[in-house]
Amino acid sequence: xxxxxxxxxxxxxxxxxxxxxxxxxxxxxxxxxxxxxxxxxxxxxxxxxxxxxxxxxxxxxxxxxxxxxxxxxxxxxxxxxxxxxxxxxxxxxxxxxxxxxxxxxxxxxxxxxxxxxxxxxxxxxxxxxxxxxxxxxxxxxxxxxxxxxxxxxxxxxxxxxxxxxxxxxxxxxxxxxxxxxxxxxxxxxxxxxxxxxxxxxxxxxxxxxxxxxxxxxxxxxxxxxxxxxxxxxxxxxxxxxxxxxxxxxxxxxxxxxxxxxxxxxxxxxxxxxxxxxxxxxxxxxxxxxxxxxxxxxxxxxxxxxxxxxxxxxxxxxxxxxxxxxxxxxxxxxxxxxxxxxxxxxxxxxxxxxxxxxxxxxxxxxxxxxxxxxxxxxxxxxxxxxxxxxxxxxxxxxxxxxxxxxxxxxxxxxxxxxxxxxxx
Length: 423
Ligand SMILES: [Zn+2]
Prior knowledge:
Layout: H1 3-9, H2 12-23, H3 35-47, E1 52-57, E2 71-78, E3 81-91, E4 110-111, E5 114-116, H4 120-140, E6 145-153, H5 164-169, E7 180-183, E8 191-196, E9 198-207, H6 222-242, E10 259-267, E11 287-296, H7 302-319, E12 325-333, E13 336-337, H8 343-356, E14 361-365, H9 371-376, E15 383-385, E16 400-402, H10 403-421
Parallel strand pairs: 3-6, 3-7, 7-15, 8-14
Antiparallel strand pairs: 1-2, 2-6, 4-5, 5-16, 8-13, 9-11, 9-12, 10-11
The structure holds zinc ion (ZN).
Zinc ion binds next to α4.
GO molecular function: metal ion binding; succinyl-diaminopimelate desuccinylase activity
Keywords: Cobalt, Hydrolase, Metal-binding, Zinc
Protein name: Probable succinyl-diaminopimelate desuccinylase
């Protein structure tokens, strides 16, 4: 065990305290509460350790308002000579609590080596582990090259537009400023996440004509038209997607192909409000809408994904009487994939071998995370997700993170800093 590793292990209590303190700030998103509080907590700690801290509000980002301002923290400490900058980026927001908890979701309870709470694994445990790793590194090595940055950013759980996307637009992830990015999302301490699939979201509406329900032939049923759309998806789109495999090491394996979810369907009159129990009126629906969530691979493009759906709909339009539709794209996210021989990947991989005595597993995420903004806006390809915690616990009741896992990953992060900043 290296001197730095022992130093990190000796910070066990500090790591527990910090993780608990972070969990106890309920940074719920939506709507985005206590963002400034958690940034100030970290600012207070890191400025005492020589970091230059900036509190940055994402003015004008989706969701930003005076009631719910989107605050971010970027802390930087420069070394004694020029070199690369290593940036640890964690999102500080957490998702809603939900039902089924047996622990206080904002209590940060420690029980048998696990710390419980909303955000414990996703990803306040990873944030705390990176802070401890960096602080131990600075104590061990007063003389280092380059710079270390730690950021705590808003809104990852709702797309990251008030967080990393905003910072990237302001130049915080420009390649001349930052060379290596590690995002301590909960991927297990022996796995390196190289990237994620892309996403394309759209609403499709079929049109009809309203008429009396007893004489449907006098109108045109938009729900039946949508039925034809869904049938075309079943017959043609789903089999085509299932046949498309990827070189991305996506886990779980079911996501190692293109997928599509139909998030919602609605046709005809609105459902009754809870305080109204009357009977529905008899009408032929003149509109039916679905929302689709199409996840795609590095081997595909967002335009190709969109054109495939449009071609199917246009084909229906040509073949089916009175069929008409509207398609509204809601959002798109590019897939991101860092090369296995990128410096941050080989460095962390070696640190996992040295520190944990196992070969790393390379994975990619089925859903996206903030890497997309660092890649697309920041133009920085040398980025991975690496951090403690079990991905399957994210967003679940009684979410927890293991203290030993946090320490293990902190040792890997510390050793990676030694490789990158002590040339
Ligand atoms: Zn997360």
